[in-house]
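Need a sequence for this fold. Nothing fancy.
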């Protein structure tokens, strides 16, 4: 496996505008999630990721973790999966799911969005910001997703036109926005999505996906919202049924610790994007 530094140097050579060398202070750093509505996700998985640093078009430096494909020379490119954390949290909340998807054959990227986790700075800190600034930071995070997608799909051994996106909570809004404009996205998983997040209408956004396979993983407490998102999307597409719902037992605060979460998301994604043998 390439070292973190070697991986990012190679990426920088291929596309210096979107990738920078990791700052020594953030190499392999593990940052506790912010306390705003953070979900419980106790990870016991071995961390097989490389720490990388990304640069957005507006010069924001982001810390990310890349789980490079497990492959032999004769293996086909691995499908890509990008995981987007909830507002007020960090990529740490998705470490266990990322490791699980990686084990199942995906090349995976998780990223601390601007103002979050190891990407937070004195000037951009979501936890310390007021409501208006938080909304602005979240809206600008679409640029973070742009940089992350560009990086992921350019890596060796990664299928450049086979991307799945997983979004948690408010991260579902960013996932839907990206999927609606990116023809490389093959499937979307939304974990406990709200109908509205930071001014973005998630229900309408899912409708804009126009038939793209979408899975909603919802705790019992959010089942009604999930049903409404599904109904709205199908109605917007002349009754085409493309949004599935999988109900989980845990409540919202503990959904990332639900034993069925990783297997449900992985099995569904593999059915959608993996070549059938």
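Here you go.
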């Amino acid at each position: 496996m390439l070292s973190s530094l070697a991986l990012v140097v190679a990426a920088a050579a291929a596309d210096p505008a979107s990738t920078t060398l990791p700052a020594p202070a953030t190499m392999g750093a593990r940052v506790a999630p912010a306390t705003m509505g953070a979900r419980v996700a106790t990870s016991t998985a071995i961390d097989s990721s490389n720490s990388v640093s990304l640069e957005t078009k507006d010069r924001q430096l982001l810390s990310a973790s890349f789980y490079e494909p497990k492959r032999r020379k004769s293996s086909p490119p691995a499908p890509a999966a990008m995981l987007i954390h909830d507002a007020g949290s960090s990529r740490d909340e998705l470490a266990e799911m990322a490791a699980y998807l990686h084990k199942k054959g995906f090349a995976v990227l998780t990223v601390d969005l601007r103002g979050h986790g190891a990407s937070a700075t004195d000037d951009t800190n979501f936890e310390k910001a007021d409501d208006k600034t938080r909304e602005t930071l979240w809206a600008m995070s679409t640029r973070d997703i742009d940089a992350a997608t560009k990086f992921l799909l350019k890596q060796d051994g990664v299928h450049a036109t086979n991307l799945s996106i997983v979004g948690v909570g408010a991260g579902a809004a960013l996932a839907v926005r990206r999927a609606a404009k990116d023809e490389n996205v093959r499937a979307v998983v939304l974990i406990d999505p709200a109908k509205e997040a930071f001014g973005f209408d998630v229900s309408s956004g899912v409708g804009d996906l126009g038939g793209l396979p979408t899975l909603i993983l919802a705790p019992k407490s959010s089942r009604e919202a999930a049903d409404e998102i599904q109904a709205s999307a199908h109605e917007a597409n002349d009754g085409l049924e493309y949004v599935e719902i999988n109900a989980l037992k845990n409540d919202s605060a503990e959904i990332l610790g639900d034993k069925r979460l990783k297997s449900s998301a992985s099995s569904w994604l593999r059915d959608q994007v993996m070549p059938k043998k």
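For context: The first strand starts at residue 19 and ends at 20.
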